Amino acid sequence: MWESYKKGYKAWLQLERSLSDNSIEAYLRDIDKLTEYLQSTGHLKAPDAISLKDLQSFLQWIAGLGLNASSQSRILSGVRSFYKYCFIEQIVRQDPTTLLESPKQKRALPDVLSFEEIEAIIRQIDLSKPEGHRNRAILETMYSCGLRVSEVVNLRISCLYLDIGFIRVIGKGDKERLVPIGGDAIKEINAYQQHVRPHIHIKTGHEDILFLNRRGSRLSRVMIFLMLKDLAGKAGITKNISPHTFRHSFATHLVEGGADLRAVQEMLGHESITTTEIYTHLDREYLRETLHTFHPAFRH
Fold it and tell me: Which one of 24, 102, 162, 243 has the largest count of C-beta atoms within 10 Å of its C-beta?
């Protein structure tokens, strides 16, 4: 019985999807896994008799085989494709995979914001308030220079060389580095220094700190975290966002744009190039997603 379904599915993949032989073999192996599971239960149900519950049990079964989350997702994508075929060919009236949740994959890396999302967040800032100009200068600087949140709250006026487009950053372990700063960030820092900062009563010991709160003290990292969360919410962005997301996005955009890894390491202040290399892994993931989206042989 299942052999005829598999034969029909194979023909559909060849004719309708124009997939390569390797891709077709991979999809058929996924269906073999499903029939192997059904046989293990002693009840080889037909495709139209399989319920969501059956498929949930099947996922538990493949997890029990020791397959990692990405391999489980790969098999699940094959099963989804098979049911798409069954639905089109009217073998089933309902697709039981619709409500099937993918296995949770470990997220080793934080979310990345696109350039458009970063701009959308910055646009939410209310510039009618004095702190609006300060917040805009903070976010432009964080994205332009890829700063850690601790580096931005400790940024000193004496470390700004805006006339030549650089800032001196004191990073982890008091290591200093010179980082280029973009025109938008320079413009915002200048506006903040000229129009907002002079009106703040500065607390003793904080005269050289660039970004100050209303009481004239250095900002806390928590304040920047909360400010970002609020702006992202207003921009309708549901990704998990923290100040580190800006640094992470800065590095990702550079690597995706073809930047030299040593240059990225220098700008981020990573002691070891291996820390920076996570962005090449991320870039490979980005390439894979691009192929899945735009390459006909990769489409599911």
Answer: 243
**Active-site choice (17, 33, 133, 270):** 270
Query: What tens digit of pLDDT does each residue of 63-108 get?
Result: 888 877 778 888 998 999 999 999 999 999 999 998 888 776 554 5
Residue 168 annotated in active site: no
pLDDT in tens, 167-210: 999 988 788 999 999 999 999 999 999 999 999 999 999 999 99
User: Is the model's pLDDT at 236 over the cut of 70?
Assistant: yes
Q: How many other C-beta atoms lie within 10 A of the C-beta of residue 17?
A: 18
Annotated catalytic residue within 148, 197, 248, 253: 148
CATH, domain range 2-103: 1.10.150.130
Q: Which residues contact 175 (CB under 8 A, 6 or more apart)?
A: 269, 271
Residue 62's contacts (CB-CB under 8 Å, 6 or more residues apart) are: 33, 37, 71, 72, 75
Q: Which of 74, 177, 244, 299 is catalytic?
A: 244
Q: Which one of the listed residues 134, 247, 248, 253 is annotated catalytic? A: 247
Write down the CATH number for the domain with range 115-290.
1.10.443.10
Verify whether residue 247 is a known catalytic residue: yes
CB-based contact 239:245 (threshold 8 Å)? yes
CA angle 105, 111, 117 (to 5 degrees): 140
Active-site residue, 279 included: yes
109 falls in which pLDDT band (50, 70, 90)? low
Would you call 109 helix, strand, or coil by DSSP?
A: coil
CA distance 140 to 132: 12
Among residues 224, 227, 250, 241, the alpha carbon closest in space to that of 144 is found at 250
Q: Catalytic pick from 172, 214, 288, 292?
A: 172
Domain ranges of the chain: 2-103, 115-290
- pTM of the shown model: 0.59
pLDDT score of 275 = 75
Query: What percent of the chain stands above pLDDT 70?
Result: 95
